User: Fold this.
Amino acid sequence: MSAQPVEPLLPGQVHRVPRTIRGISDWLPEQKRDQFIEEVMAAKEEDDYNNVMDGWWAEVHLDQIPDRAERRARAIKEMEQGRKVSIDELRARWQLRNDDAE
Assistant:
């Protein structure tokens, strides 16, 4: 079972997850947890272990973003179409999301 949030968050905030095997695995759904444990167990060197921990620690933080999957799919589609996004457009999108969250 994934860890449940204890206190409400402000827009743009995520819960802090301990960078430990238990901390990360507590925040992952079962399917991802199994994959995480498998990768941790397969790490032979310290660098391999640190890369696994870093990647999954980032994943559990990013998974807390409510519309992450939709935004990622949209970005991949735009990238495949060769569409370039300006910094101004990114700022405008960010501002709209923050305005909607308030």
